[in-house]
Amino acid sequence: MKTFLLFVCLLVSVSSMRSQTHIRISAPKYKGDVLTLCRYDNYITKKEKKLAECKIDSAGNSSVIVDIDDIQYVFMHYEKLIYYFFVEPNSDINVTFSEKELLDEKEKLNPFFEPLSISASVTATKGDNLNQQLIDIDSKSDDAILAVAKNKKENDRHFKDSLLTVFKNSLNDSDNEFVNDYAKYRVASLEYLFKLKPLKNLQTEYFADKPVLYTNPAYCELFNHINDKYFLHRTQQAQGNAFRQAVNKGNLVEIRKILSQNDYLSNKDFCDFLILQNACNEFYDSNFSRSALLEIVNSVAKDASTENKIIAEDVRSAIVNLLAGYSPPDFELFDMQGNKKSLQAFFGKYVYLGFFSVNSYGCIKDFYLMKQLAKKFGEKISFVSICIDSKDDIENFIKEEQINWTFLLCDNSKDIIKEYDVRTFPTYYLIDKNGKLLKSPAPSPSEDIYQIFEELKD
Questions:
Q1: Does 105 reside within a domain?
Q2: Which of 130, 121, 116 lies closest to 26, judged by CA?
Q3: Domain boundary at 106, 127, 148, which?
Q4: I want to staple 393 with a disulfide (CB 3.0 to 4.6 A). Which of 40, 327, 341, 389 is the partner?
Q5: Are residues 244 and 195 in the same domain?
Q6: What is the Cα–Cα distance from 245 to 239, expressed in whole angstroms?
Q7: What count of other Cβ atoms lies within 10 Å of the Cβ of residue 381?
Q8: Does some domain include residue 269?
Q9: Can the peptide bond before residue 441 be classed as cis, meaning omega within 30 degrees of 0?
Q10: Rounded to 5 degrees, what angle do the CA atoms 246, 252, 258 make?
C-alpha cells in the first residue's frame, strides 16, 4: 500500500512539474483563420516544428496551452508577415497579431520572397514582461545598425564605438539569465558587424569555455556568422592538408583532434556543434566530399551529447532531403476532387513531380509538352503537378486545356515549397518505383527528360 501511495505521489509530482504555458491570442483580422505557432528545432537547419495550432473565433480570439521546458522563440507565419514572440515555462501571456497582409500574384510566384518579421504585442498576466525586455534589446541594436548605415559611417570607428557604448549603457541587468545572455550576444554581434574586435578575440571572449546556448537566438545568430565556412578557412591554416584529408575521409576522431588544438574549440559540445553547422552548410558546395560529410554527421549522431545527437539527426534529414537515392519529403495534399493524396499513393510507378503556377509563362509552355509525355509514358509514370494557384484557376485551366493527369493543391501545406527547395516555377523531380529520388532536380519537358523516360525500366 505504501509503495502504491508513493507511486501516486510521484505521478502527481511529475505532473505538477510539467512546464505549461497559456497563450491567449487576439487577432481580429484573422477571424476564421487557422494559425500555426512554430519554433525552430535548432538554429543550424532552422527546421520548423509546430508548437500549437489554433482557430481564431468570430470575435477574433483564441487560446492554446503549450508544454515547453525552456524559453522559446515562437513565430507565426502568414503570407507577407511573420509575427514572433518569446514564451517561457509556466507563464500566462496575451499575444496580439494586429496586422494582416496577403501576397499578390507576383509575390506568390517568387520563391525568394522574404516575409516581413515583426514582433507581436505581448503582455504577461503576472511578473516581468520577458518579451518587452528582449524586444527592447533588439530595437536598440537595430537603431545602432541603422545609424551607421544612414549616416554612411561604415569606416568611422569612433562613431561606431560611441554607438556601441550607448547601446551597452542602455542595457539593464535582469533577474532572467536568458535575457542577460541575449543582451551579451547582441553586444557581441554589434562588435562583429562593426568590426570593432578581431574575429579571434570575439571567438575567445564569447565562445571559448562557455556553455552552448542552443535555444538563445542572439547566441546562435552570432555563432552562425562567426563560424560560417570555418572548415574551408581551416584548410588554409596550419595542418590544413591534414584537416582536409580528415574531412574527406569522414574521420570524426581526427577532425576533433585537430580542432581541439585550438583553445576556442576545446569544449567538445561546442566543437561538435560547429562540426554539424559546417557539415550542413558545406554539403551542397564542392569544397568537400558529400559522402564524407554525411558520414561525419552520422558519427556525431552516435557519439555526442544528447542535444548534438538530436541536431545531427536534423542535419542528416536536411542534407539528404533532396539527394538522389533517398526518399523525398512526403506530403498530404488535396486533389481537385477534394481527396487527400500522399506521395506513397503513387508507390509502384515512377513519378514525374512538378511544381507549377498557371500564371507562369514557363509553366504554360511545359504543360503542352507534358500532355504529349503523359500520353506516351502514362502507363509507367505518374505525372503529378503541385500548384500554388487557387482551385478555381486550376480547374479553369485544366478544363480549357483538357489536361488529365494529377493536380494537387498546396493550400493546406505551404511548407512543401520550402521542403522541396522550389526556387523557380516550374521545378521537377523524378522519383523511382520505390519512392526514392532518381533525378533531383529532374530535367524539364523541354530538356532531355524524354530520353530519360525512354530508358526507364517497366
A1: yes
A2: 121
A3: 127
A4: 389
A5: no
A6: 10
A7: 20
A8: yes
A9: yes
A10: 60
Chain centroid to Cα 56, Å, comes to 25
- Is residue 150, in this structure, part of any structural domain at all? yes
The reported pLDDT for the residue numbered 450 is 93
Q: In angstroms, how far is the first alpha carbon of the chain from the final one?
A: 67
Q: Are residues 56 and 150 in the same domain?
A: no
Instruction: Using the 3D structure, point to which of 127, 156, 175 is the last residue of a domain.
Output: 127
The candidate with the shortest Cα–Cα distance to 48, out of 76, 80, 20, is: 76
Phi-psi label, residue 239: left if phi above 0, alpha if psi -120 to 50, beta otherwise: left
Instruction: Indicate whether 310 and 340 sit together in one domain.
Output: no
How far apart, in whole angstroms, are the C-alpha atoms of residue 326 and residue 317? 10
Residues 6+ apart with CB under 8 A from 261: none
Strand-pair partners of 407: 385
What is the CATH number for 343? Answer: 3.40.30.10
What is the length of the chain? 458
Residue with cell 523541354: 446
**Helix, strand, coil share of the chain (percent; to 5):** 45, 20, 35
Residue 433 DSSP label: T
* Count of structural domains, the chain: 4
Task: Give just the sign of the alpha carbon dihedral 409, 415, 419, 420.
Answer: positive
CA triple 48-415-309, angle to 5 deg = 30
User: Could you give phi then psi for residue 21, rounded to 5 degrees?
Assistant: -125, 130
Lowest-confidence pick of 196-200, 215-219, 317-321 = 317-321
pLDDT of 246 reads: 97
* One-letter amino acid of 449: I
Q: Within a domain: residue 14?
A: no
Check: pTM over 0.85? Answer yes or no.
no
pLDDT of residue 164 exceeding 80, the answer is yes
Separation of alpha carbons 325 and 439, rounded Å: 9
**Do 403 and 373 sit in the same domain of this protein?**
yes
pLDDT, tens digit (0-9, with 9 covering 90-100), for 413-427: 667 888 888 888 899
Same domain, 340 and 450: yes
Strand 332-335 to 406-409 pairing? antiparallel
Contact 264/204 with Cβ under 8 angstroms? yes
Sign of CA dihedral 375, 381, 382, 384: negative
List the grid coordinates of 58.
468570430
pLDDT for the residue 301: 97
